[in-house]
Design the sequence.
């Protein structure tokens, strides 16, 4: 049976739902609607309301084109609208005195798709584990990451509006989470893919300082940011894809027109992936909308800022999946022979022969396509994660993991691909909606152990769970990594030769 529950926030009263020992508040605005004159502007404060605002249903999400996840899950996409800055809260119905740990989830999706209300991120398991979970929407694509400062200085910094939305949500948590029993002094921010890249960049942002106390970065690190020059080029290419719109045209265009331009520029880049890498030296350049390291809200060298102590005192869990690139290999043909493999590695390394040799020695049975998957997994995900761990280790406790469990879904095509760990983190492997990702018989024991490790880290700063061995910190040459599989183990610098092929 579902009952109602009302709480008071800094902006007004909210009515949520109460069922099975869990309360939920959905579709809560944390910033003013970024529409009309506020398009391409930083988030603005919420206008207080009179009476009780209904928060029993999820709200609209950020406008976005159809995605791979939509195709995997089937059915209709979530309803979107430019008025999208909402968050959702799950909490235990009867929290103890003193406040509960708070975890704030930032969704992935390449900075161009996804939402905080996706079935992947429902937070009942966290509430049952004594954690207050917050998920959020932030502006995506052009609405969140189109840098327009080179067209008009008044819009300088618009390429980081999506990150500033995340900061605004964290400010909402600071000011209001005690109303549902959360402790604003014990907040963990965590995310996957673009969400993990966001978490990593928040570690570098002065405006985010003090808004969270621990961080978890799943399959994403601080290498996502563009230079201002790249952001200006991307903006000009996008304007051309929209039919040559000028600044005023972009500000007044219909959302469907912006999405069509986004689809056009994305198709152009996916049509010639080698040229994109050749021009930018980074496979992430396939994504035309990413944060900008412009020296304003985001330092020009985010990783350097972290290494310099921008997030001193923040503990970190960072990791990747064994076969991240398998998800993306479904969308682009991999190398089919050694010559093609070497040519692609040459786009990423000045010594492609040495890199290919290191991977061939590590994985002697792999085909060229499988070796390319390993290379791109490392270039885009594993190596940036190692760099982030090394940057933060002098300033907080850092723990590193690798998720190795291979999904049997889609005939084993996914394996230990990008995003496979999410149902384990959220303890949702038994949810039939997620069987398309993990199959119907995913190891429940592993899901419990991963979920409990994440919540233990949020509560106490140590990712400890009954199903895992002791998890050492990354603070020396051994580089201990927790291998998350049906039988979790700790390995010292696994596949160290391939890591050194990039990091020395």
Sequence:
């Amino acid at each position: 049976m579902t009952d109602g529950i009302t709480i008071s926030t800094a902006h007004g009263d909210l009515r949520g739902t109460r069922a099975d020992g869990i309360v939920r508040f959905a579709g809560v605005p944390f910033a003013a609607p970024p529409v009309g004159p506020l398009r391409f502007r930083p988030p603005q404060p919420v206008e207080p309301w009179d009476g009780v605002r209904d928060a029993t249903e999820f709200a609209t999400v950020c406008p976005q084109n159809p995605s791979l996840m939509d195709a995997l899950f089937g059915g209709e996409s979530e309803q979107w609208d430019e008025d999208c800055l909402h968050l959702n809260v799950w909490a235990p119905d009867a929290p103890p005195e003193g406040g509960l740990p708070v975890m704030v989830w930032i969704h992935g999706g390449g900075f161009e798709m996804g939402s905080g209300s996706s079935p992947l991120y429902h937070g009942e398991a966290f509430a049952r584990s004594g954690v207050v979970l917050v998920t959020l929407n932030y502006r995506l694509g052009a609405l969140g990451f189109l840098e327009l400062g080179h067209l008009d200085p008044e819009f300088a910094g618009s390429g980081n509006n999506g990150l500033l939305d995340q900061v605004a949500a964290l400010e909402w948590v600071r000011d209001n989470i005690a109303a549902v029993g959360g402790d604003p002094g014990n907040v963990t921010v965590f995310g996957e893919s673009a969400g993990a890249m966001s978490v990593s960049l928040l570690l570098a942002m002065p405006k985010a300082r003090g808004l969270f106390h621990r961080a978890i970065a799943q399959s994403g690190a601080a290498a996502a940011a563009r230079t201002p020059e790249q952001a200006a080029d991307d903006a000009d290419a996008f304007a051309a894809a929209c039919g040559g719109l000028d600044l005023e045209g972009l500000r007044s265009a219909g959302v469907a027109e912006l999405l069509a331009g986004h689809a056009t520029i994305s198709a152009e880049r996916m049509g010639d992936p080698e040229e994109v890498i050749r021009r930018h030296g980074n496979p992430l350049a396939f994504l035309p909308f990413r944060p900008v390291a412009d020296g304003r809200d985001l330092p020009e060298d985010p990783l350097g800022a972290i290494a310099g102590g921008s997030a001193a005192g923040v503990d970190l869990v960072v990791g990747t999946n064994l076969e991240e690139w398998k998800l993306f290999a479904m969308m682009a043909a991999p190398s089919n022979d050694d010559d093609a493999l070497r040519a692609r590695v040459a786009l990423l390394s000045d010594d492609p022969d040495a890199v290919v040799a290191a991977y061939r020695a590590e994985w002697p049975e792999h085909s060229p396509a499988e070796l390319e998957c390993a290379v791109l997994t490392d270039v885009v995900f594993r190596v940036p994660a190692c760099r982030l761990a090394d940057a933060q280790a002098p300033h907080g406790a850092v723990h590193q993991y690798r998720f190795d469990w291979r999904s049997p879904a889609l005939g084993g095509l996914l394996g230990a691909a990008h995003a496979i760990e999410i149902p384990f983190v959220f303890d949702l492997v038994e949810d039939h909606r997620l069987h398309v990702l993990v199959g119907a018989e995913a190891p429940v024991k592993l899901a419990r152990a991963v979920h409990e490790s994440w919540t233990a880290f949020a509560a106490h700063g140590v990712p400890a769970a009954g199903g895992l061995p002791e998890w050492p910190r990354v603070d020396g040459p051994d580089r201990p990594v927790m291998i998350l599989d049906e039988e979790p183990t700790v390995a010292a610098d696994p596949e160290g030769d391939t890591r050194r092929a990039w990091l020395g």
In short: The chain is about 35% helix and 15% strand. The chain has a mean pLDDT of 94. The domain at 3-334+367-503 is CATH 3.40.50.1820 (Rossmann fold).
